[in-house]
Every structure is written in C-alpha cells, then in structure tokens.
Amino acid sequence: MKNLIYAVVFTLSIVASVPTAWAKNPNDAKFSHLGNSAAVPNTANTPNATHKFDVHVQGKALSELSIVV
C-alpha cells in the first residue's frame, strides 16, 4: 500500500510539473499552430495522397514552413 501511495505521488508530481497550453478555441491560441488536417485518399497504402492543413498564424508572420513526413 505504501508503494502505491509513493507511485501515485510521484506520477502526480511529474504530471503537475509539465506545462500545458490551454485555449478555449484553437483559433484563439497566441501562437502559430496547425488546425484541421486531412489526406485524400486517407488510406495508409496510398503513397501520393493529397494533404490539406489549416495553418493559423498568430503574432509574427511565418518566414518558412517545413513538414517532415
């Protein structure tokens, strides 16, 4: 029982120390981020699918966007 309590306290202390970005709506975030994304067709065995990304730019303009697949 003592080991379980120690494990729970250790886990909660790690989880509480990780900063998290909270936003009510992803479009209200104060940083640039990717919104909705999709691939057409969306099957894993299609090597030449067309991808769509919604890029929300907040603050300074983006000078470069790299997507590594």
Give the percentage of residues in beta strands. 15-25%
Number of β-strand runs: 2
Over the alpha carbons, how many angstroms does the gyration radius reach?
Answer: 20 Å
Number of helices: 1
**Helix/strand order:** HEE
Q: Tell me about the biggest sheet?
A: 2 strands, antiparallel
Q: What is the rounded distance between the termini? A: 46 Å
Mean pLDDT metric: 75
Helix content: 10-25%
Order of strands across the biggest sheet? 1-2
Low-confidence stretches: none
Structural class: alpha+beta
What is the 3D form? flat
Account of the protein in words:
With 69 residues, the chain is an alpha+beta fold. Helices cover 23% and strands 22% of the residues. A two-stranded antiparallel ribbon has the order 1-2. It is flat.
Task: Give a short overview.
With 69 residues, the protein is of the alpha+beta class.
Please name the defining characteristics of this protein:
2 strands, flat, alpha+beta, 69 residues, 1 helix, two-stranded antiparallel sheet, single chain
Topology:
Elements: H1 2-17, E1 33-40, E2 50-56
Antiparallel strand pairs: 1-2
